User: Fold this.
Amino acid sequence: MSQKALLTSSLLAGLFSTQVWAVEFKVDEDLGCYSGPVHLIQHGDGYVSGSYDVITMRMVKYSGNSPVNMPTLLSARCVGVFTVPNGEPENNGSCEVTDGSSDRYFALFHRKGDPKKVEAEFHVIHGTGKFAGMTLDLKILEIGDISPPGVTNMMSGCNRAVGTGNAPGIK
Assistant:
């Protein structure tokens, strides 16, 4: 095969790969609420640590070049740990998110500071089905802590997420 033919076929293969034609989108009004058990260690004023295992439901609205023209319902299980050494909160965790067709993605998140003032960083690192190869970077801000009164060792609340993504598997 000539160098010219090899170069032409390589360029055509690159043009028609799913990465080139991936759908870019924005998440701009993503409201999610969560609830689940929390395990605490309270070591005096301002020194707290714990872990949690929560379930969240999200109604995601997409914009930009997304082919999704209506809200999508997602469910997630998120596990994490937090510490509050001397009043400065830090939170790390991961989530597995699924849609109605059982396609899933896995994400990591981190926040250092007051959850009502400092946004968490949320990054998708793996996906299956239509989420395979997806990238998604969100900023998440707590908008309310609505823990049930009289119920111990539970946490619940709501947050808002804003960001951008790229999904080769969504056409």
